[in-house]
Design a protein that fits this description.
The chain is an alpha+beta fold and 272 residues long. It has 2 domains: 56 residues; 209 residues, Ribbon (Umud Fragment, subunit A), CATH 2.10.109. It contains 4 helices and 17 strands. The strands form 4 sheets. Strands 1, 2, 5, 6, 14, 15, 16 and 17 form an 8-stranded antiparallel sheet that branches. β8 and β9 form a beta hairpin. The two termini are 32 Å apart.
């Protein structure tokens, strides 16, 4: 079952807000200036301002996420804690993700967080539809994307690839397993370059193909092209599923308990 923290936070905020409102408008008048407030009502009412601030910040400003997998290596490592800009792609209501007003749209090369749309033919191992995913935006509406042997061509223009080296994984066991993969730089937009992993002994299906991105959708890939479940295998991300743009790493902790696993060197690293 998917744990929906946004839903839980929203319900708690509304519940505590109800206690706060009833206390201010009804109970305060009944008890008078010298009366003692009910302990239960006072407890929930006192939580409301704190919960409202937290809900507002994570819904409309920045939301923290933790990277659980190797699909965006070498850009993002397992255990990276990142801040996601929630107003980069429009201001949306929490839980429903309904767009209130537009503030911008994804650009090619953005690292975006979105709700997993599901594949046309579901598999037993698939995550629930709506699970938070993070990938790099490759195709914009109307683009024609060709991927052949992990080399991109976008609207007839081939991406350029720099010198290769051998990647050495660090941190979590799943990251260390990527040691030996080939790392190369990829450039498909002026002034924008990032590293990808494109060869590995245990490589997944290459996912070669050609895709035309429909209106209102985006085509995304993981930077770890040899081990990423992305648009090659399940299609396009609808605009309505966008959650925000990953902007910065604020901490790295390669195990869930964060015991002896901090990497302070990644703190404050801008995601490109």
């Amino acid at each position: 079952m998917k744990f929906d923290f946004a839903l839980i936070l929203t319900v708690l905020t509304l519940l505590c807000g109800t206690f706060w409102l009833v206390d201010k408008l009804v109970l305060a008048k009944r008890r008078g200036p010298d009366g003692k407030p009910n302990d239960t009502v006072d407890f929930f009412a006192s939580l409301f301002p704190v919960l409202a601030i937290v809900l507002g910040l994570r819904s409309f400003v920045y939301e923290p996420f933790r990277i659980p997998s190797s699909s965006m290596m070498p850009t993002l490592l397992i255990g990276d804690f990142i801040l996601v800009n929630k107003f980069a792609y429009g201001v949306r209501l929490p839980v429903t993700n309904t767009l209130l007003f537009e503030t911008g749209a994804p650009e090619r090369g953005d690292v975006a967080v979105f709700r997993y749309p599901g594949r046309p033919v579901p598999r037993p191992t698939d995550p629930p539809v709506g699970t938070d995913y993070i990938k790099r935006v490759i195709g914009l509406p109307g683009d024609v994307i060709v991927l052949q042997d992990n080399r991109l061509t976008i609207n007839g223009a081939p991406a350029t690839y720099g010198p290769e080296d051998i990647y050495v994984g660090v941190g979590a066991p799943a990251a260390i397993e990527m040691t030996g993969a080939r790392r190369v730089s990829e450039t498909f937009a002026p002034g924008h370059s990032h590293a990808i992993l494109d060869r590995w002994d245990a490589q997944w299906d290459d996912g070669d193909g050609t895709w035309t991105v429909p209106a209102g959708h985006y085509f995304v890939l993981g930077d770890n092209r040899v081990a990423s479940d992305d648009g090659r295998f399940w299609g396009f991300v609808p605009e309505s599923h966008l959650a925000g743009r990953a902007d910065v790493i604020w901490l790295n902790c390669s195990n869930w308990a964060c015991v002896d696993s901090f990497d302070w060197r990644r703190m404050g690293e801008v995601i490109r």
